[in-house]
Structures are given as C-alpha cells and as structure tokens.
Amino acid sequence: MSALLPGVRVVMVCGGKGGVGKSTVAANLATALAARGTRTGLLDADLHGPSLPVLFGVRERPTVRDGRIRPVVREGVRLMSTGLLADASRALAWKGPVLRGALRQMVRDVDWGDVETLVVDTPPGTSEIHMALAGLLDISAAVVVTTPQRMALEDTRRCVAMLTRLGVAIPAVVENMAYFPCPCCGARTEPFPDSGLVGALLAETGGAGTRLVELPLLPAVAAGAEQGTPFAQHAGGDSSAAGAAFASLLDALDDSLHPVP
User: Fold this and answer.
1) What pLDDT was estimated at residue 195?
2) Is 248 exposed, middle or buried (0-12, 13-18, 19+ CB in 10 A)?
3) Which residues make up each annotated binding site?
4) Which end of the chain, N or C, is surrounded by fewer C-beta atoms within 10 Å?
5) Known binding-site residue numbers for ATP
6) Are 17 and 152 contacting, i.e. CB atoms less than 8 angstroms apart?
C-alpha cells in the first residue's frame, strides 16, 4: 500500500525497450480492471512522451476543485497525464528535482477519490522516473512488457534486474505481438523468428512465480489504441486470444495482490 495513497494498490507497467506496446497494455489493463468492477486509476508517468490522451481519445483538460486536480474519466478509469495539462506540440523537458516534483504533484495533488488500484504507465528503460516512483509509492507489483526480439529482450533483462533490486514482485511478463492468429483458420504464425526467447528469459531470471502472457498481434487491439477506445473495454467474456490474454493477466495480478493464505 502507498504512503501517499493509503489503501491503494499500485501496479507499475514497465518495458525496457520503447515501442513494445507498454502503454497500450497499461491502458487495456486499467480498462479491464475497471470493467471487472475495480475502482481504477491510470497515471501516465512517461513525462517526456505521454501517450494516455491518444489511447483514450481525451482532449479536455482536467478541472481543479478545492486546490486538487480532478482526473478525467474514460471507460470507468480515472486518468492523469502531463499530456492532459500541456499542448501536444509543447516539448516537455523535465529534469532532476523538477521531474520528481512533477511526479509528486501528479500523485499527491490529484483527487483520486476511492481508487482501489492505480496502474502506472512508466517510460521505457530504467530511468530516474522509476527511482522517483519507488521513493514516492509502495509498489505492489509490476507487469513487464516486451516483444520476442533480441534487441527488446536485452533491455527487458535490465528492467527485470531493476525491479528485482527494488524488491518489486513481477507477477506477469507480457509478450506482445507474440503471434498472429489467422482470421480464417486460426492457425498461429509467429512474426518474429526467435520464438521462445521470452520464456527462456523468465527461466534465466528465476521468475518461477511469474506468468508468461502471450498477447497476439491483432488489428482490433491496434485499432482500439488508434481510435482512443481500449480493446479490453469490449473484451469481457470474449473468447478471442486477446481477451484470453488480458484475462490471464488479471488472474496473475489477483494471485500476486491477493495471495491465498
């Protein structure tokens, strides 16, 4: 639980490499939690490249009441991002104390209400932002997102090592774009040649309690991100591979956040 947000479970979504779909997974995870009935917030902590406004199709600015910022609500999720506070064309150059101060404000000065779980979308890599978040919040768990490519996995190793040093549990690694299911026959095609690399990484890092979640390459997921309507909002009870992947991710988080005594 967080000292700044008492009683709130904080789930970081991390990715060592840029472009692996981390923000898309974070948006869909938050939406899936809300669709299940969990009071959910999503903090876009990628201060240099905020993605949340595009992923949720949000254009309006948050309002302020009694000196606190009120999050914008979409798909049942309370949203906060620097992308909602500044023009899209403005270059955001955050450094050192200013960066840490901005993160603190986005946690402390936002009226998160009765949120039960806060999903935090972090920037790629192992940055100062991750260290600042670890100092501000008690991180309940982290989800690591990667693709089955050697370039991505080298950076994913560093990400996993950082989380391990911080003592953060990793209940799931999401292998994004793991395969493409044929819309006609359902046959599985793997777009990257080195299949099995992510599973090998888990074994190598000793992730015995970490679940591998394979998220397929599907037009519906990509279209949802482009159109500002996260796929998971419409995936409840869906038998599709993507719906099953997010269900598996929620189960992994449940096992981590609510362990059986």
Assistant:
1) 64
2) middle
3) 16-23
4) C
5) 16-23
6) yes
**Of residues 113, 108, 111, the one with CA closest to residue 64:** 111
The position carrying tokens 């044929």 is: 182
Q: Is 212 exposed, middle or buried (0-12, 13-18, 19+ CB in 10 A)?
A: middle
Please give the structure tokens belonging to residue 74: 């979409």
Domains of the chain: residue spans and CATH:
10-256 (3.40.50.300)
- Contacts of residue 5, defined as CB under 8 A and 6 or more positions apart, other chains included, come to 107, 112, 115, 118, 137
167 φ, ψ to 5°? 75, 30
For the stretch 123-152, pLDDT in tens is 988 888 888 898 889 999 999 999 988 888
229: left (phi over 0), alpha (psi -120 to 50) or beta: beta
pTM for the full predicted model: 0.90
Report residue 218 as tokens: 């599907």
User: How many Å apart are CA 50 and CA 52, to the nearest integer?
Assistant: 6
Structure tokens that stand for 41 in this block: 């917030």
Range list of β-strands (E), the chain: 9-14, 40-44, 63-65, 68-70, 72-74, 77-81, 117-121, 141-146, 172-176, 180-181, 188-189, 211-215
Whole-number pLDDT of residue 236: 44
Helices 219-227 and 22-35, packing angle to 10 deg: 90
Q: Which residues of the chain have pLDDT under 50?
A: 1, 236-239, 260-261
pLDDT of res. 3: 64
Left, alpha or beta for 19 (phi > 0: left; psi -120 to 50: alpha)? left
